[in-house]
Specification:
Blueprint (H helix, E strand, L loop, with lengths): L2 H13 L2 H8 L3 H15 L4 E4 L2 E4 L1 H30 L1 E8 L7 H12 L2 E8 L2 H9 L5 E5 L7 E8 L2 E5 L11 E2 H4 L4 E4 L4 H12 L8 E3 L2 H10 L3 E5 L4 H6 L3 E2 L2 E2 L1 H4 L2 E7 L6 H32 L7
Parallel strand pairs: 3-4, 3-5, 8-13, 9-10, 9-11
Antiparallel strand pairs: 1-2, 5-14, 6-14, 7-11, 7-12
Helix pairs in contact: 1-2, 1-3, 1-4, 4-12
């Protein structure tokens, strides 16, 4: 069936006039008349009773009108789906994220996503957890990746990945042998921390306060990369999720400490967004894509940690 002819037939039926349909569609009345005549020829029936004061539907026209409205709605739905699909293939996504996943996790996910949707672009801002939440609240980011999200009146989380906070040291550090150690004793060693806008510092200080232990980092910074480099050069302990030092753990340039602290073991990475904000099709698809990769990266972390433990830990692993 000629969908163009059907569209004009439905418009004429609504207006009960070819002239008024012409005005509404901004198409010449003669062109509309030709389209309907072609449709009548195709269906081999008369659809309109043309009169000087307008048109009246014939019996065949009444039946086509009833079915045609359904066809029109279905065509509009298909067009909407195609428009959404087209939107998935392009667009810009603004992400604000904590630094801990910028070494491997986030670059790898973006790479995989762009292999499927090469016309989607990303704007990545690295910030602390608090700054990430603020960016979402101010509509400056479409999605955020945060650790230890608790609650915020305007922010919700849609997915979670197990990412415990761990302690790491250089290979020649006394604690690289895997002997079990509690946080109170660990904090007596030289250690570095990010500033207080980071969830890492907030969590360490909260646990230390509960255990009545002093926290006195030798260096504080708003860059985890700097803290990692400093710790490696100065025999210092650093606290970070494994994703923050994944390559170094794989390469054996940094070693996990056998820290016994349940409060740090239940840390989570979450995908966050502003409540009741409609995401673009591309952004929604990416959020689902990232969520689907969470379990894969949890498995990679577990494999890397086990390999490091087997390579470096020579002491009993329990207190």
């Amino acid at each position: 069936m000629n969908l163009n002819g059907l569209k004009y037939f439905l418009e004429v039926a609504k207006c009960k006039s070819i002239r008024r349909a012409s005005e509404r569609q901004h198409v010449a009345a003669s062109a509309i008349s030709r389209q309907i005549s072609a449709l009548e020829h195709e269906l081999d029936c008369v659809l309109l009773d043309r009169r000087s004061d307008g048109v009246i539907l014939t019996e065949a026209g009444e039946r086509l009108w009833a079915h045609g409205l359904k066809i029109e709605a279905q065509v509009q739905m298909v067009q909407s789906d195609i428009d959404d699909l087209r939107a998935l293939h392009r667009g810009a996504i603004r992400i604000t994220t904590v630094e801990g996943i910028t070494e491997n996790f986030l670059p790898d996910i973006l790479t995989e996503f762009n292999q499927i949707y090469p016309d989607v672009t990303f704007e990545i801002t690295v910030a602390s957890r608090d700054e990430t939440v603020d960016a979402l609240d101010r509509y400056e980011a479409d999605l955020g990746f945060v650790y230890d999200f608790s609650s915020h009146h305007a922010i919700e989380t849609t997915a979670h990945c197990h990412q415990p906070l761990m302690a790491f040291v250089p290979p020649d550090h006394p604690l690289s042998d895997g002997r079990a150690i509690e946080l109170a004793e660990l904090l007596r060693y030289s250690h570095v921390l990010p500033d207080d806008s980071f969830g890492i510092s907030q969590l360490i200080k909260r646990v230390a306060k509960k255990e009545k232990v002093a926290v006195s980092p030798c260096v504080r910074s708003n860059l985890l990369n700097f803290l990692r480099n400093y710790a490696l050069r100065n025999q210092a302990v650093m606290f970070v999720p494994l994703q923050g030092v994944y390559s170094e753990v794989i390469n054996g340039t940094i070693v996990p400490v056998n820290l016994q602290c349940a409060a740090l073991a239940h840390r989570r990475l979450s995908i966050a967004r502003r409540r009741q904000r409609a995401l673009s099709p591309a952004t929604g698809l990416f959020a689902t894509f990232a969520e689907d990769r969470f379990s894969h990266w949890e498995a990679l972390d577990a494999e890397a940690l086990l390999a490091a433990q087997q390579k470096w830990w020579t002491q009993p692993t329990s207190l």
